[in-house]
Design brief:
Shape of chain B: globular
Helix content of chain A: 25-40%
Number of domains of chain B: 2
Largest sheet of chain B: 6 strands, mixed
Strand content of chain B: 25-35%
Number of strands of chain B: 14
Number of domains of chain A: 1
Order of helices and strands of chain A: EEEEEHEHEHE
CATH class of the largest domain in chain B: Alpha Beta
Largest sheet of chain A: 5 strands, mixed
Oligomer: heterodimer
Distance between the termini of chain A: 16 Å
Radius of gyration of chain A: 16 Å
Radius of gyration of chain B: 21 Å
Shape of chain A: globular
Distance between the termini of chain B: 50 Å
Structural class of chain A: alpha/beta
Order of helices and strands of chain B: EEEHHEEEHEHHHEEEHEHEHEEH
Largest interface: A-B, 27 and 23 residues
Number of helices of chain A: 3
């Protein structure tokens, strides 16, 4: 199944359904319509839901690296920006989960994939923070997980890992 | 400035010509792709311009093949073969390119029998100052090492003795200019003191007194060496600095300072060649360089037939293949396989 979102075109082989989750068009059956954040795409597979969030930071990647900061004020600004991005990705997932819970559609394991235009090292750093805060895995009192896994990757790494879910810049 | 190097059947290289930036040249690549050999070849060529010695003998002592049989540096083949490397440089004085070339056969045992070709007279009439910082620190082992190296046949590549020679050079006459003063101040702040030497032994001198280099962390010793080379005028406009894996024993926080200094040296006219396996080094250069800085990231890799090739870019994000970032990529791959199994594959 093919879908275009945020300047990227995805093909999901084997998906039962794929749709723009934060759909703005009220005429469409997948219209979001709630005052909540939402991930860009949800792909439905027989045993999994895949939540996908896309952020193209080609020109802004450095703003999320603390090594760029020249002084304490800049370091704080970089930390703030990275924290902002991490929170942005975190709350998008959580609101989507809540929305899907209300739809009674959290019956399968959920994997969260964030497609960012960072290099692999920065993707790894972001994934580590995000997993901790979503959180991935099961809390002591929970009987189910919010997210089974969370990964942050760029286009090259995405296509390498998911040959059946190819993505291309439109 | 060093303009390019050309290898033919020399050590790891079958046929490779690499043009250089007049500023910073950073080599990355997996082990065995010849990063250090490029630095050593350039260094040997620069050094003989000043010492007036034979390039063949210098190469034999810098590369240190078994029993100094220089023919062992020819790329290994079953049949008899010849190999060479040629370094080309430009000079402001002559408005032309100069070259020096070492050519030898795999049967050449004695360095004196290897051929040295090129614009040899001009090469040595117009000397070029160069410093090669090897991976292992020598500052703490300085006392007695140079005399031992000169008197006895000890199995050390000559770069280890040479860097101590550079470090022991006396100070330049007069005050350092403002650019050098600024660099020295940055280093003094990072290592909390200045470097002095007494009887061939280096000390870090600060308010607390004098601390011998053997008691200093290796990372601080590296900053100390850089301080000495700037302070004594080894690294000036027109000099060449070659540094093999600057990240070794350096805390990631100090890497930022080292890169800041290297970029500033490039801005005052020092041509720099580095090899690295370290992401922080690459990322620091990516983040700290501006539009006016001259930088090439050079990736060395083996093609399908096993020959060493290179790609280069002045934009870190365009560097491919990037063996360092690919390592982080492999972590991502393994995490995905671990949690998603064959999904999407």
């Amino acid at each position: 199944m093919k879908i275009v979102a945020d300047g990227f075109e995805f093909f999901f082989e084997g998906a039962k359904d794929v749709f723009i989750f934060d759909e703005k068009d009220p005429k469409k059956s997948t219209f979001h319509g709630a005052p909540m954040k939402g991930v860009d795409i949800v792909a439905v597979f027989p045993d999994q839901y895949i939540f996908i969030e896309i952020k193209d930071y080609t020109a802004e990647a450095d703003q999320y690296d603390e090594a760029k900061a020249a002084d304490t004020a800049e370091l704080m600004a970089v930390c703030d920006k990275r924290k902002w991005l991490k929170n942005y990705l975190k709350y998008k997932f959580r609101d989507t989960y809540l929305y899907r819970h209300a739809e009674d559609k959290v019956d399968k394991e959920i994997h969260y994939l964030c497609l960012l235009t960072f290099d692999n090292a920065l993707c790894s750093t972001m994934a580590k923070s995000l997993r901790k805060e979503l959180p991935v895995g099961r809390n002591r009192r929970w009987v189910r997980e919010l997210a089974k896994s969370c990964h942050v990757l760029n286009v090259v790494q995405w296509n390498k890992n998911f040959p059946k879910w190819q993505v291309a810049v439109v | 400035m060093i303009e390019q190097i050309k290898f033919e059947r020399f050590t790891a290289f079958e046929d490779l010509t690499i043009p250089f930036s007049k500023g910073i040249n950073i080599f990355i690549g997996e082990n065995g792709t010849g990063k250090t050999h490029i630095l050593k070849a350039i260094y040997s060529a620069c050094d003989v311009s000043k010492t007036q010695k034979s390039l063949a003998e210098k190469v034999a002592r810098v590369f240190l093949p078994s029993e100094e049989q220089i023919g062992r540096l020819v790329k290994r083949k079953k049949a008899s073969t010849t190999g060479s490397f040629e370094v080309v440089r430009s000079t402001d004085a002559k408005q032309r390119s100069l070259s020096i070339k070492l050519s030898l056969s795999n049967h050449t045992k004695d360095a004196l029998k290897a051929k040295v070709l090129g614009t040899l007279k001009l090469w040595q009439d117009l000397p070029i100052e160069a410093a090669y910082i090897p991976v292992k620190d020598m500052m703490a082992n300085a006392p007695g090492f140079r005399s031992l190296y000169n008197l006895r046949n000890i199995h050390f590549e000559e770069v280890y003795a040479d860097i101590l020679d550079r470090a022991f050079l006396g100070s330049l006459k007069g005050q350092p200019d403002q650019a050098r003063k600024n660099l020295l101040t940055i280093l003094q702040r990072s290592m909390d003191g200045k470097v002095i030497f007494k009887n061939e032994e280096f000390f870090l001198k600060n308010k607390q007194g004098e601390l011998e280099f053997t008691l200093l962390a290796e990372g601080i010793r590296k900053l100390g060496l850089l301080w000495v080379l700037i302070q004594n005028g080894t690294l000036l406009n027109g000099s060449v600095l070659l540094w093999d894996e600057p990240e070794t024993n350096l805390n990631p926080k100090l890497i930022r300072t080292v890169v800041e200094i290297l970029i500033a040296l490039q801005r005052i006219g020092v041509q720099i060649f580095l090899s690295t396996h370290n992401y922080s080094i690459l990322k620091e250069f990516d983040l700290q360089t501006g539009d006016t800085d001259e930088i090439f990231y050079v990736s060395l890799f083996r093609d399908e037939s096993g020959d060493v090739k290179f790609s280069r870019t002045n934009n870190y994000l365009d560097l491919a293949p990037n063996s360092i970032d690919e390592t982080y990529g492999s972590f991502i791959d393994r995490e995905i396989t671990k949690s998603l199994g064959n999904l999407g594959k």
